[in-house]
């Protein structure tokens, strides 16, 4: 049987509308199996949703403990080229335009957004979100197109221009990456999967009296959940609707 273009398009519309396809034949939805049926939320706890809270009133501009710990833990070297150095976390100075408030030292990292634009624009699905909200990059899929770098409003992603090597003074298994891929903060996913906080948080707890808090915001009893309920906090660029999971106190 042959059909012209108009007939084909008409058939497509009929299928979409759920009308009769042929005498005695209808397009119907398959019944749900027990595994497909909606589950009672009370049967299982909600999945973890990792987030970070940074109290800028405890963060001094002279302290780089979080940055140093991140570089050591994740083998993020400085190449001496400001245009091509990699930063998973960096310190910036936030100034009040009206000069009514003193400058604030602000650690900036990947915000692990609930609606991450980096994931949406990635043409190879290299950028993805885990069930616990951690946004990661599959280096085997990344083609270095840098669309995600452009899409990120927090400037939290870097292109690797130089192949890295393991540091000579450690026996730890640290990431080794090839040139030509994009990378960023992972919330130290290897540590949180092992029940430990990210390296920056662990270092900050000693150096800055706990300026950084990390935890599961889906757990109402967690420290971060309690703090978010009792202190005034805000996120960076909430107007974009990305729902970032790095919260700041004191800005």
- The assembly state of the depicted protein chains is single chain
Q: How can the largest sheet be summarized?
A: 4 strands, mixed
Q: If classified by CATH, what would the architecture of the largest domain be?
A: 2-Layer Sandwich
Order of helices and strands: HEEEHEEHEEHEEHHEHEE
Explain the overall architecture:
The protein has 251 residues and is α+β, with helices and mostly antiparallel strands. It folds into two domains: 5-40, no CATH class; 49-249, 2-Layer Sandwich (Alpha-Beta Plaits), CATH 3.30.70. It is built from seven helices and twelve strands. It has helices spanning 5-17, 65-74, 117-121, 147-151, 189-192, 199-207, 223-230; strands at residues 20-22, 25-26, 50-55, 89-94, 104-109, 127-129, 135-137, 157-159, 182-184, 212-216, 233-234, 246-249. Mean pLDDT is 83; it is low at 1-35.
Concise account of the structure shown:
The chain is globular and about 45 Å long. It has helices spanning 5-17, 65-74, 117-121, 147-151, 189-192, 199-207, 223-230; strands at 20-22, 25-26, 50-55, 89-94, 104-109, 127-129, 135-137, 157-159, 182-184, 212-216, 233-234, 246-249. Helix content is 22%, strand content 18%.
List the helices and strands and how they pair.
Layout: H1 5-17, E1 20-22, E2 25-26, E3 50-55, H2 65-74, E4 89-94, E5 104-109, H3 117-121, E6 127-129, E7 135-137, H4 147-151, E8 157-159, E9 182-184, H5 189-192, H6 199-207, E10 212-216, H7 223-230, E11 233-234, E12 246-249
Parallel strand pairs: 3-12
Antiparallel strand pairs: 1-2, 3-10, 4-5, 6-7, 8-9, 11-12
């Amino acid at each position: 049987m042959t059909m012209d273009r108009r007939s084909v398009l008409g058939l497509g519309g009929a299928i979409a509308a759920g009308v009769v396809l042929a005498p005695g034949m209808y397009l119907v939805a398959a019944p749900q199996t027990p595994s497909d049926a909606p589950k009672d939320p009370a049967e299982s706890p909600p999945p973890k949703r990792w987030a970070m809270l940074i109290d800028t009133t405890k963060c001094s501009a002279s302290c780089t403990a979080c940055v140093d710990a991140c570089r050591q833990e994740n083998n993020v070297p400085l190449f001496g080229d400001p245009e091509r150095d990699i930063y998973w976390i960096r310190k910036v100075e936030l100034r009040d335009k009206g000069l009514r408030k003193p400058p604030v030292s602000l650690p900036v990292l990947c915000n692990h957004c609930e609606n991450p634009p980096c994931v949406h624009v990635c043409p190879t699905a290299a950028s993805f979100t885990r069930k616990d909200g951690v946004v990661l990059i599959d280096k085997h899929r990344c083609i270095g197109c840098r669309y995600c770098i452009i899409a990120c409003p927090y400037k939290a992603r870097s292109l690797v221009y130089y192949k890295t090597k393991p540091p000579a003074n450690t026996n730890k298994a640290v990431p080794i990456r090839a040139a030509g891929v994009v990378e960023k903060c992972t919330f130290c996913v290897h540590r949180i999967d092992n029940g430990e906080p990210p390296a920056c948080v662990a270092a900050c707890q000693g150096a800055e009296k706990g300026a950084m808090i990390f935890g599961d915001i889906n757990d109402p009893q967690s420290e971060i959940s309690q703090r978010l309920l009792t202190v005034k906090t805000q996120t960076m660029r909430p107007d974009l609707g990305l729902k970032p999971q790095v919260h700041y106190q004191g800005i």
